[in-house]
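[09:14] KT: can someone run the structure on this one? pasting the chain below
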Amino acid sequence: MVRLAWLAFLSVTITLSHGNGRPNFVFFVADDLGIGDVGCFGNDTIRTPNIDSIAAKGAKLTQDLAAAPVCTPSRAAFLTGRYPVRYGMDGMTQPVAIIQLSIPAGLPRSEVTFPKLAKDHGYRTALLGKWHLGLNCARVGDHCHHPKEFGFDYFYGLPLSNAPDCDPDVIESTRGQRLARRICSRLRLWEISTSIFVVILALKYFKYIQWKTVFLFSAFGWSLVTVPHVVFTNGRRFNCVMMRDDDVIEMPFNIPTITPRMTLEAVKFLEESKIKNQSFLLQVSYWNVHTALLPYMEFRGKSRHGLYGDSVEEMDWSVGVVMATLERLGMTDDTFVYFTSDNGGHIESGDKGGSNGIYKGGKGQAASEGGIRMPTIVQWPRQIKPGTIVSEATSQMDIFPTVADIIGAPLPQDRVIDGRNILPLLGGAAVTSPHDFLFHYCGEYVHAVRYRPREGNVTWKAHFVSYNWDPGTTGCYTTYVCHCAGPGVTYNDPPLLYDVTNDPAEDRPINVASDPRYAVVIDVIKKAVEEQQKSLTKVEKQFGLSNVIPRPWLQECCNFPFCDCQEKVDLSSLQIGG
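[09:31] RB: done, structure tokens below
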């Protein structure tokens, strides 16, 4: 009896010392990192020892898929466990991401995220880094799309993204500058505005209108010219913004210091959680390796792949600091750690883009493995054996139901959840994918479909649409991001079919005429697409024309009217680059 009582006492003590026995969560999300950029997925020229260590101590998911091939819809799907098309967070004729801070588009308030589930179950939650899912709706400061509206107690990072325009050395060559000039030249806005002004003066001269009307119509005419220039040519000022919770703390942000500052914030959050003995969910969402590529000085020139490789190695250093902090605080065994990227490497960026390994295509291509097959690894010593390899098809949307299962939260019953709980697959209790089908959307269109029959050991993938690549490449170099419809694609009739289990590089399409499996598999997939389309409901398009027009009254600004502020941070406590 004494021994049993002592064992019971030890059990209670251990439980209390680990946040009531509930696991913690750390999610690392890279930006535009290709599956071929990481050592444990085959890269031997960029050093990623800390990321590789997570794979060695846990599981490597070799067929883990993003639900969209660009940032905004992919991140929305990751948080909600649902295809972005279900709530209007995907484009129409091409993949779309939020590119202006002063537009009302964003993740709908009706969506439930897994951080919200965790917060409702007593977890401390934080997002450090890139959000990219909107900010304001009706006025500046309403923050209807802010991370705190979706379950994050604390936010420190970028409400939008890091883009080429954020590079202080890039001035005339930015996309914003080019777009503004193109708008003005194609629509002849200077001529139109000047003509309106001349007509207004004539009307005033002949006393048909008053000075008040002159002012109003003149303001309208000249705004046709000024608005495109102010919005698009000042991207660094208005879009390269950093926030702490609801406050703008840096405008424009200093790119080289972002990753070290995020890392310092992560260390502080973990230490505070330990002191408070409270279970936590932390998402560290890197800018690395989205252009502009400006890593901290200590990392520059250290890799064999220029600024791109330097930026990957900077991110790996940050991952190592966070993992070392978990170990120092004695929280490694009780923490579910997940590392992934939001989409594949942007091969149209040339040497500023990453490698997607043996897989064709890249960012922006929803049907191509290079755009959606992610370098995903998971570590949780309590449940996952070291060295586990999961080769079955999984999705980033699976994290929502997986987290829900781990924390004991019921799934929402008022909506379709497209993700599936993959804990049995990670722990070895299951050996096949929980998905019969995975649909690869490009905008509103289904470009490809994965099909995993319950029998056998094969995953099929049908391509209904293919991209018209530049000869000798798998990139759409004529455009910055491949289009989903129109002359940039080919509609396959009959569809191309691949066995991606045995032909992951999709080099050998199944013969339509001679292989009897083709007709059977395609028939099953087509019926699945019909059922999928029936499950969709009409929703507001977040990227409809009315939602993507910049509105000055939605623009965040610090130190008004200068919109210029800088945060001072002491990074001396970090061994940067070590």
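[09:33] KT: thanks! The CA atoms of residues 510 and 517 lie 8 Å apart.
[09:34] RB: yep, looked fine to me
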